[in-house]
Amino acid sequence: MSTGALKRVVVVGNGIAGLTAADTLREEGFDGELTIVGDEIHPAYSRPALSKALLLDGDTLSSHTLPPASHGARELLGVRATGLDPDRRLVTLDDGTSLPYDGVVLATGSRARRLSELPDEVTLRGLDDALALRRRLAGRPSVLVVGGGPLGMEIASGCLAAGCRVTLVSQGEPLTAQLGPHLARVFTTAARERGLTVVRTGPARVAGRAGDVHVALDDGTVLRAEVLLTAVGDIPNTEWLAGTGLVVNGAVPVDTRGLARPGVAAVGDLAAFPTPRGRRRVPLWSSAIDQGKSAARALVHGDDAPPLSFQPYFWTEQFGRTLKAVGPLPAAGEPVYVDGEPGSGPALMAWQQEDGSTTAVALDYRIPVPRLRRMTRTPA
């Protein structure tokens, strides 16, 4: 589709993927009618901050804010998209109206996966979730977190810092599946030293009734706390695309530029794009930004747009330690120390992966991300 044929673009989703796509459309010369639809009433915000700084009493409630948008789009906030007609090029909204488009960006993200329908099962996905949890933590309740991935561990860290007694339930050692055993040990050691109780189990169930919810472990043990929070993954928000033929196995597959079909881009947590390890979703903040840029360029420039050049970047702050990682994770085996040495101090490390790629990791180490990227290489 040429720039001249692109008069109206609708971006469905006001997270970082949709925001980046909108900004990039303008940067690439699109000067037509731009509309952004967001089901939250809030302007776009930093989701990673929700499980980090925002949970702490010392935060000024500004850690999640982003610079004001410069795209000049018409923003429809607090409105949900309920349908897409790719043939008629229409987006249907829950207020009964429809938005015509020449190009559309699907960026409705994902929601927290739940273990029950009980209202006392707390999840942390959006800004309202984080603010509600922050208010509850002010009373220093006992907290039970189910999920040993990065989100569960970050939440547990924030709850401990708020003065709560925290137990984390994990299938296997926390973070091992995401980071690899070496880095997982670093963080679980720090967590236990700060007072986190870790319970390893097989599949756990959330059960009970309103006002009396609990976690049942695989050995029959029952755990209770004043706040029960689960962090067990996400589900792409693709239900509104039913009947379009765009959804495969719960996600929207796209090409190397982020297009699901001509004029239809999909970015962020709902998109599955080609990677060196196969077509997959990569629900990371940096991934959403890279996808948003690539897809917007494809809408404006068509086949002349460059393909997505994606290099994974992950960062976390928890239990007094920080990590920046560029390259594929988990990292297997032991690292090569570029700077620092084994122990508790800052270190700059690298792993050579089986596929020939390199993963560079800064642990409590001040280093610009571009330098980390220069330490990596991608297999031919």
Automatic annotation (TrEMBL):
GO terms for cellular component: cytoplasm. Residues 8-292 form the FAD/NAD(P)-binding domain. Pfam families: Pyr_redox_2. The keyword Phosphoprotein does not apply. Its cofactor is FAD. This is NAD(P)/FAD-dependent oxidoreductase. GO terms for molecular function: oxidoreductase activity, acting on NAD(P)H. InterPro entries: FAD-oxidoreductase/Apoptosis, FAD/NAD-bd_sf, FAD/NAD-binding_dom, FAD/NAD-linked_Rdtase_dimer_sf. It comes from Streptomyces sp. R39. SUPFAM superfamilies: FAD/NAD(P)-binding domain (SSF51905), FAD/NAD-linked reductases, dimerisation (C-terminal) domain (SSF55424).
